[in-house]
Amino acid sequence: MAFKFFEKLSQDFSELLNDKEEYNVIIEFGQEQREKKLLCALHLTLIKNYQIPYIYGGIVNTENMDNRTIYDLMILANELEFEEVSEKLENLLIESKDSWLRTHFIFVYHSIFKHSKFKNLEKFCNGIVVKHPSIIFESAEFSSFHESALTSILKHDDLQMKESEIWNYVIKWLTAQNPTLPAKLEEWSDENFMTLKITLQQCLSLIRYFHIPNSDVVYKIKPYKKILDKQLWNDLKLHLMLPNQPVESTILPPRILKQELPVRMVELFSIIIIEENASMISSWIDKKITSYSSRNNPHELINSSRK
User: Does residue 255 belong to any structural domain of this protein?
Assistant: First the structure.
């Protein structure tokens, strides 16, 4: 598939690519003191093969591009502030390469929050996480996720986790960001608690404290009460004793937890190919230029290894 972006280019300079003389392109962008200069040389593979043709001719051809290259090109386009290219590639990944996104989910989820403009990918990923939170929260990479990843998912009312479990993971993430903390909570200083309060400022406001069981408030929240605002902690204590008494703190709605589905074993699609390959084969059968995604594959390929 080739995306053409002639409308926003003043002229098609693609013929210059045939010029044998060296041509480096310096792209300058930014405002006032925040100015960046990027030297785009032809020996850089991504820029040579994909971004330079876009700069000169307004064309980005993804026909023979592997999925990781599409993803890397999207990141590069974002960094170069080529928004139309970045958005087009982002949508291409979601609409046609979703099986690759799922296969490399942790990598994708980890990297998109280093940037702030991949809102569609963020929505796609969070749609998976709210249903299967263990993918992220039980991941070995959990502690290294950016705070924006946590806040993004904690905003969802339909996150399928109990609030006390969310609190446990938030504390786990918090302590991982501060490796110099004393091993024993009793040894934490007021300065330690203040540092943590600042670190967790955004996440703390998204926890549904008033929907945490009383016993968990006492045994899980109370030891960390110093990272909470005094008014919030006072209201929590009041709520423990008089649940119907009005409080000054904002009470967020409870999360919408659905009935747990029965646990089932997930069978591998095949020991030879993955679903993405099957979708591509189906596209060849139907002589489609664009590959089917795993969600809209009209054919069912029989796996002879299944009995």
Answer: yes
